[in-house]
Q: What sequence folds into this?
């Protein structure tokens, strides 16, 4: 196998950033960490996009001096990434704005605590008892009851 | 457990991405559209920075949509963070102290430097790396540093909204001028000039100036909202 060259390291880095972001979004219980994981995954995706237009023998697509003498890299992915970065900033700013409001309203950013709080609030507004966990002892199981117990009931 | 399932998903996706990347001809990417743009862009738009000619000339309508997305995000963030009727009085009653001497003096020193760097990046977007989006962020940073140093002296929201609206209208207006001049919407107009000169590339620097002002106004308004 060849020694690892620059571009495979860069590609693996981009994929690694996407993977770190995906795992972070999967395991984090704190909403701000979720937004940060999204930002990391987005950075990896942008890196992969720029690398898609990379060429070994080329320079940046800017004409310097008299004219083009050297080949240049593909300008289209770079323009796309410019768009992606700006939209990412907008998404993150909006997410953080919403998080500020959530923190003000509920005093926590933990997903599980928020779930309980929001469920209680909805049930209180509707005037019904809050739902109990299906795994709590003594609750009716939501899945179909076996045939034997249905006959006895 | 759902957590295990998501980690499994992330691992599988990584494997898939690595598998896809291993099959690509890395570093020797075939360029279909890119090669054509590289050959035609300097004579068609007169811009030395080919990324700029892609962003503003070949994909000008995309950039308009991008500005619309940024505008929507800034507006919704302002709407979400707008002080409610109950919290409004408390927020006004809370005194906002100035930052320390070091931060105030530093911000006074940085403000003109950041402004000139920001406008330099915006106005040289068709010649050097950079452009309206990048320079606009630097402009927003200039206003945000002074806001951090003196929280009591807020930037006026009316002024920010006015700059933003006028810049957006100028972008669309240049596009409409090209349309009524017999071309397509957002087609580059005006004289292309000499390649590499500051005044060249027709309407592209004007478009980037509008983009820069709009991005700067939007981001500084957004940051001011977040800081409140």
A:
């Amino acid at each position: 196998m060849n020694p690892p060259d620059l571009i495979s390291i860069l590609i693996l880095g981009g994929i690694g950033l996407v993977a770190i972001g995906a795992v972070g979004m999967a395991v984090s219980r704190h909403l701000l960490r979720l937004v940060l994981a999204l930002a990391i995954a987005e950075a990896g995706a942008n890196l992969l996009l720029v690398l898609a237009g990379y060429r070994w023998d080329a320079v940046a697509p800017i004409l310097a001096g008299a004219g083009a003498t050297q080949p240049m890299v593909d300008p289209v992915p770079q323009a796309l990434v410019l768009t992606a970065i700006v939209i990412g900033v907008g998404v993150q700013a909006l997410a953080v704005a919403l998080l500020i409001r959530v923190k003000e309203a509920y005093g926590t950013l933990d997903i599980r605590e928020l779930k309980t709080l929001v469920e209680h609030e909805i049930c209180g507004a509707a005037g019904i008892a809050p739902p109990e966990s299906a795994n709590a002892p003594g609750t009716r199981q939501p899945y179909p009851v076996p045939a034997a117990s249905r006959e006895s009931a | 457990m759902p957590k295990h399932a998501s980690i499994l998903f992330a691992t599988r996706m990584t494997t898939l991405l690595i598998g896809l990347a291993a099959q690509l001809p890395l570093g020797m990417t075939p360029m279909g559209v890119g090669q054509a743009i590289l050959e035609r862009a300097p004579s068609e738009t007169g811009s030395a920075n080919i990324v700029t000619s892609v962003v503003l000339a070949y994909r000008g309508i995309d950039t308009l949509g991008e500005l619309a997305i940024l505008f929507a995000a800034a507006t919704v963030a302002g709407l979400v963070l707008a002080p409610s009727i109950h919290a409004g009085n408390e927020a006004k009653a809370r005194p906002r102290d100035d930052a320390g001497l070091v931060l105030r003096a530093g911000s006074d020193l940085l403000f003109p430097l950041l402004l000139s760097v920001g406008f330099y990046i915006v106005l040289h977007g068709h010649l050097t790396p950079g452009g309206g989006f990048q320079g606009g962020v630097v402009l927003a940073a200039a206003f945000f540093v002074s806001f951090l140093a003196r929280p009591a002296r807020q930037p006026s929201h009316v002024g920010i909204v006015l700059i933003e609206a006028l810049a957006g209208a100028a972008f669309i207006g240049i596009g409409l001028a090209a349309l009524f001049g017999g071309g397509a919407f957002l087609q580059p107009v005006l004289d292309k000039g000499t390649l590499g000169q500051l005044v060249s590339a027709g309407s592209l620097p004007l478009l980037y100036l509008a983009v820069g002002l709009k991005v700067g106004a939007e981001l500084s308004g957004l940051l001011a909202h977040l800081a409140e």
